[in-house]
Amino acid sequence: MGRWTIGPALALTASISVSVIGTHAEAASRPDPVAVLKRQLNGHGGVRESSVYRIVWGPKKDHVTSRSRAVYEFGSRGIMAMDLRYSKFSPGDSRSIVFQDRAYGWERDHPDYLPLGKSWILETKKNDLYLACGQIRLSDPATLRHVLATTAVKRPAGVYDGTRTTLYEGSTTIGELYRLNPRLQVGDFEKPVGQYASYSKLPVKWRLWLGTDQLIRRCQTRYDEPDSPWNVKDRSLKTADVRFSGWGDPIDIKPPPAELVATRDELVFSDEG
User: pTM of this prediction?
Assistant: First the structure.
């Protein structure tokens, strides 16, 4: 407020009033990121995603990195389909085409149990489709609202997907994220309750880049967890870097050709072993 101390008291009062009114008007006219994303997911084309996930552990900083690209199709019931491709993922390149009621899987090195001429495996089941960045489920309105409410730093940032962005930074905890998303897992696919309750206090540091339209263009998370509740000395650092582009692009995800798809009962397993 120091910059307003020059001049008569009347001018000071007027300046503050105009400043406050202008700030409130700007805030009122600025779209809500949660509402914008919710509206976008409700049948407005789709979005493209590129992700880099990395885990680092041990004194020698051993690490594994996975890279993937995905395309999402939106519809009247939210995210209707996803086409996900891993370019660096053990045991090799893979692809998944997932709908709300079924999923198709493909691997470059076709498993021996696939029938001759088949390259895809069909699984018929309900699937939970969502946009995620590390431990944060971005497409869940309550989670996104909570994350933005923990913002500690906000500043202008670079251009992503052709739009200038604003960078938001903050930190939340595994416990808060689990409260909003009960499917969240820690460690070796455990929930942060019971024996793993101590994990609920672990911080999750995050960064979000929002475009001028308030849609997410980039997200980063950083999360450090112990190997187990009984071994807190050895730890793993998990980071995620996810970029989104082409919000609203017309996306039409198709299943693979039927003649290339094998159902579970068509798989041929060897009796050996």
Answer: 0.85
